[in-house]
Amino acid sequence: VLQAALSDGLDFRNQGTRLETKLANLPAGESRTVDLPLSALKAGLQACQVTVTAEGSPEATAKASVNVVEPMLKVEQGGPAKCLVRAEPTYRVMLSNPGTAPTDPVTVQSVLPDGFEYVGSSDQGAFNPATRVVAWKLSGLAAGESKAIEVKLRAGAAGDVALRTVATAGPDAPAVAPVGGAPARAARGLEAKAETAIRAEGVAALRFDVAGLE
Questions:
Q1: Most distant CA pair in the chain: distance in Å?
Q2: Secondary structure class of 126 (helix, strand, coil)
Q3: How far apart are the C-alpha atoms of 203 and 155, rounded to whole Å?
């Protein structure tokens, strides 16, 4: 009888963390390999402990550990919350990976607010006038790495609007590696969003009447 106890970050075909199965008789001098394909559910050090029992034989136990690493994607956005019409504010998008594995290449898309025009962007951002979207194609972020990109706009009309940005990276996922080994990759997409509220204000026109003095 083979019994397996899994830590809560591993799963075997949605059957929980404790498994048991009966094997055929094992003749003297022979060995047998039993594969136990597991899914990684969360990052961190995980373990599988196997116990084998047979009538008339002492219990045998073995344990294997794996380090489950996971990439993450975070986006923050900053810039003026208020500007004048015809002003050209610059907004900064900060991308970061607070996870424990590198991400795949990152795509960033910022949608221009109504009433604003595109002026320019850093890191070869490409503007599509039809969709009013500025897009960046960036390399993946290593674990703990951050990267900042910028977009410059021009306020064309007064109003309360928002600059919305979406960052995606994929395919990528929690990866499993032997302790001390290099991580393997799985398939999962990452997404992060940010939004900055902007108030564009018009400039009041001033009129002076000058009377002649004698």
A1: 126
A2: strand
A3: 12
